[in-house]
Each structure stands twice: as C-alpha cells, then as structure tokens.
Design goal:
By secondary structure, this protein is α+β, with helices and mostly antiparallel strands. The protein has helices spanning about 5-15, 15-30, 35-40, 45-60, 75-90, 100-105, and strands at about 35, 60-65, 70-75. β2 and β3 form a beta hairpin.
Length: about 110
C-alpha cells in the first residue's frame, strides 16, 4: 500500500459517521448489510448515507453489490488489513540504518 492510499483510507475513517458505518459492516460480517438496514440502524438520512458510502467505496474500504433494487454493502477486510500493515511496516526496526555514515561514526 502506498502512502497516498493509506492516508485516504485513514481520512475516510476519521469521520465519525463513516467510522460508524464501517464498524457496523464489520459487525455484520461477510454477508454485509443492505443500505436500508444501515440507514435504519444508524438513523442516517439516505442522502447523507450515500455521501459517506461513496467515500468508503472510493477508498476501497467498502464494496457494494446490487441485486435487483437492493444494494448490499460489505467491509473490505483486506483493505483495512493493508492499512494496518502499512502502519506497522517497519515496526521496531530502529533508526540506526537511517543515519548518515558520519553521524554513525561519531556515535561510536
């Protein structure tokens, strides 16, 4: 995952309504929820929900599947896993290798 996409995903989840939507979809599991269920459970107006879902879908955090007139939304676990992996990518490696050679020599 690149920095730009990681930042976009985190920005989308940085909004309380979008965070609530995403957590609700995670709770629903792989079967997801249709838009009407999301709207009812979160008490969000349809136009507001559509706006927030558009952002989550655009960041790859939510997928939508249309069946007839119903639209089912599902959390995309691989995307949030990729964001978390990006954040932990260099965990506990330290900074020694990032220092210029002159600084490393002075420390010795």
């Amino acid at each position: 995952m690149n920095r730009k996409l990681a930042a976009r995903c985190l920005a989308e989840l940085g909004n309380l309504t979008r965070l609530d939507i995403y957590r609700l979809l995670v709770r629903a599991g792989p079967s997801g929820l249709n838009i009407t269920d999301i709207q009812t459970r979160l008490d969000v107006p349809a136009s507001t929900l559509a706006f927030h879902l558009r952002g989550l879908v655009g960041a790859g955090l939510v997928a939508q599947e249309k069946t007839g007139r119903a639209v089912t939304c599902r959390a995309q676990y691989h995307q949030i896993d990729a964001v978390i992996e990006f954040l932990r990518e260099h965990c506990c490696e330290g900074f020694e290798s990032d220092l210029p050679a002159a600084v490393t020599r002075r420390a010795s």
